[in-house]
Description:
The complex is a heterodimer of chains A (114) and B (115).
Chain A lengths: L3 E4 L2 E4 L4 E8 L5 E7 L6 E7 L2 E5 L6 E7 L2 E7 L7 E8 L9 E2 L3 E5 L1
Parallel strand pairs in A: 2-11
Antiparallel strand pairs in A: 1-3, 3-8, 4-5, 4-9, 5-6, 7-8, 9-10, 9-11
Chain B lengths: L2 E3 L4 E5 L4 E3 L2 E3 L5 E7 L5 E7 L5 E3 L5 E5 L4 E6 L8 E8 L8 E3 L3 E6 L1
Parallel strand pairs in B: 2-12
Antiparallel strand pairs in B: 1-4, 3-9, 5-6, 5-10, 7-8, 8-9, 10-11, 10-12
Amino acid sequence: ETGVTQTPRHLVMGMTNKKSLKCEQHLGHNAMYWYKQSAKKPLELMFVYSLEERVENNSVPSRFSPECPNSSHLFLHLHTLQPEDSALYLCASSQDGVTGNEQFFGPGTRLTVL
Amino acid sequence: AQSVTQLGSHVSVSEGALVLLRCNYSSSVPPYLFWYVQYPNQGLQLLLKYTTGATLVKGINGFEAEFKKSETSFHLTKPSAHMSDAAEYFCAVSEGDTGFQKLVFGTGTRLLVSP
């Protein structure tokens, strides 16, 4: 595997389900990000982990719970979601401490909440 | 606070025509600027970036962008469009000097290329 991978690629869940999204980066980076991409809206930064510590939480509802067990893996735990949470969830990684370094994105998980 | 404005949610060109996608930003400090491309059912891929130095930046697939501080712009161009360029393009700005790079994205411009 190379780059940033995300599983599953597609997920359909009911409002009472609990599921998790997984992201893995194979680039040796030390920062990881979760974004939400909805139609006709800019990408929304949800969470940032730097050196496995959460450094940003952009007023995301508690039904989204991130976890970063090590610098290569990032999870997004989902529970009691709402239909408006249906979106493409993108994971990204970058190398902290290097100015102007770009983020590398995974292919995303397309989430549908029924 | 930083912000990015991309004029035109859709741009249509003919194959072989000039591509021009507009991006204006606001930033209180010298910015880092990025263009990303997203093909259907894929994540974002970096096209090019400006950090410091030369204001004309060349990227992949024949794209380039020019940083114009006086106009707070970072427009993306390509001399001759190809059918494979049809995708969504995102401009982003970062003020991150150290630590993680917090990117602020524009709303995107969908490029349509007709034969």
